[in-house]
Amino acid sequence: MQCGYPRFFIAKPINHLAQAIVRQYGTPGSEKAMLFPTHSCGARCVEFFRRQLPQADLSNVRILDFVPHPEKTPSAQSKRVLPRVTAVVYPEELWPTAKAFWQHTGEGISSRQADFCKRAFDDGSMVESGSVSPSGTPRLSKGPRRYQKHVSVDLGVPRGTNGHVNGHVNGDSRVVDDGGAPDSAQFVEERYGRNLDVAFAAQARLAIRKRIAGSLSANEELPLSLDKAPDAGATNERSRDVPGFSVDDVYLYPMGMNAIFHAHRSLMLAKGELPSVMFGFPYVDTLKVLERFGPGTQFYGFGSAEELDELEQRLKAGEKYLSLFCEFPGNPLLRTPDLKRIRALADKYDFAVVVDETIGNFLNVHVLPYADVVVSSLTKVFSGDSNVMGGSTILNPQSQYYTAMKHVFETEYEDKHFAEDSIYLERNSRDFITRTHRINHNGEVVADILRSHPAVKQVNYPKHSPTKHHYDACKLPTGGYGGLLSATFHRMEDAQVFYDHLQTEKGPSLGTNFTLSSPFVILAHYNELEWAAKYGCDATLVRFSIGLEDTEVLRRVFESALSAIPKAGGV
């Protein structure tokens, strides 16, 4: 296997840089390196080793910080994004534990940051900090031509600043639109080379955060869109229904799992370490974070009213919990939790509610009034183009934990989203609204096609779920039911024939602009199929992330695959 999903499979550019560091600073053949954007991420990796492997000899585990070479970083470039990376060098027998930390937490660097830092490492402009006096901030590299405008991110932003670098920059940072519709080939290298200004990065981050906050919906170039007055349209429910909410309550992360990991970590720092509740069958790594980073979790895999009854009895009996995590709706069964009842229990028994709105997305549903923290993966439909990762966390200013959480974020938060990744993400998300509406429509059509075939056992989609009323309670007037759905089959043979004949892209992600299908349960729970089946995740389950294709084309593709199933199957 040559490549795979970024957190499950470490990308080649990251491996190349890690191997180069081991060749120079370690022992090839007996040591490996895991790469992180900051020293504190590396320190958390080492702490994970200590907790997971208390008997292991960790004397050879070390953290190396790589910084810009002062003699190759003239002062004239002091406002440019510069190369920085932290390497944890460790004995290769610790690889499974290092990989688990990388996968569960999302703390690792992106492939773009690895590419950029590898060039700097090779030409000597990035060196190990012990060999020079500390200096500088970070720098940047190439990317597609479709992103040909001023945007970006500064890796040198100190903790607690939430990406603010004296606000967004106007005047000299503006560029003239040179026309054309950029596609995706040479953008950053052509436009900026290796000299990306941190001010452009700050603009991109601010635009992304405003889009998430609901105060920016214009599909326009930066910084022009930042200067417009907030829209009064359907994306402003957050600021209208949650008094005090602003863009300053939105925080960016390198990926969605990193947002989830830090939401959990920040709550432990704010409230103390207590067990958490995972309510509903979740994405695999969310449960792992709650189980492996802290005192453990109470898992309610069905997300049912009966399980809420059981939780309430535990709470009445005096059990204490830090938080309840849930997805809205869940992945891959698309069941929706009863947020109103969960909120009432949280207020009565003093635990935080963390809602992952990735699948619903904030253009379809409004969950912030019921949550203390809202997390999301921006890698999915917010980006759509499958060429960048990102995550976000929103703090609810009406939460009883808001002040404590803000204090934690002021001291602990690091904006680690790499500059070039921010450019891509901002550019991709400009048409988020129109894409969401089209995906909603296509998703409903495909769900109806699948529901009509006798070989299909069940279609999981919020519109047709027994939990639809919980979804509708948070559904916006202009919102839909999203583009994620799944189907199970009466016979494994039918599922195999259907999947083999389905002419869509195949892969493990979701929220892509193109339709993507995967045998999700087999991929995500291959070593625990019986356990997954207990919660309704049948091994025949195929998950679909519906894209922007012409609706009639999608109809023909799905009907053709269903017609390939032998007539005797599924009855």
UniProtKB/TrEMBL annotation:
<dbReference type="GO" id="GO:0003962">
    <property type="term" value="F:cystathionine gamma-synthase activity"/>
</dbReference>
<protein>
    <recommendedName>
        <fullName>cystathionine gamma-synthase</fullName>
        <ecNumber>2.5.1.48</ecNumber>
    </recommendedName>
</protein>
<dbReference type="InterPro" id="IPR015421">
    <property type="entry name" value="PyrdxlP-dep_Trfase_major"/>
</dbReference>
<comment type="function">
    <text>Catalyzes the formation of L-cystathionine from O-succinyl-L-homoserine (OSHS) and L-cysteine, via a gamma-replacement reaction. In the absence of thiol, catalyzes gamma-elimination to form 2-oxobutanoate, succinate and ammonia.</text>
</comment>
<comment type="pathway">
    <text>Amino-acid biosynthesis; L-methionine biosynthesis via de novo pathway; L-cystathionine from O-succinyl-L-homoserine: step 1/1.</text>
</comment>
<dbReference type="InterPro" id="IPR015422">
    <property type="entry name" value="PyrdxlP-dep_Trfase_small"/>
</dbReference>
<keyword id="KW-0808">Transferase</keyword>
<dbReference type="InterPro" id="IPR051750">
    <property type="entry name" value="Trans-sulfuration_enzymes"/>
</dbReference>
<dbReference type="GO" id="GO:0009086">
    <property type="term" value="P:methionine biosynthetic process"/>
</dbReference>
<dbReference type="GO" id="GO:0030170">
    <property type="term" value="F:pyridoxal phosphate binding"/>
</dbReference>
<feature type="compositionally biased region" description="Polar residues">
    <location>
        <begin position="128"/>
        <end position="138"/>
    </location>
</feature>
<dbReference type="GO" id="GO:0019346">
    <property type="term" value="P:transsulfuration"/>
</dbReference>
<keyword id="KW-0486">Methionine biosynthesis</keyword>
<keyword id="KW-0663">Pyridoxal phosphate</keyword>
<dbReference type="InterPro" id="IPR000277">
    <property type="entry name" value="Cys/Met-Metab_PyrdxlP-dep_enz"/>
</dbReference>
<dbReference type="Pfam" id="PF01053">
    <property type="entry name" value="Cys_Met_Meta_PP"/>
</dbReference>
<feature type="region of interest" description="Disordered">
    <location>
        <begin position="127"/>
        <end position="178"/>
    </location>
</feature>
<keyword id="KW-0028">Amino-acid biosynthesis</keyword>
<comment type="similarity">
    <text>Belongs to the trans-sulfuration enzymes family. MET7 subfamily.</text>
</comment>
<dbReference type="InterPro" id="IPR015424">
    <property type="entry name" value="PyrdxlP-dep_Trfase"/>
</dbReference>
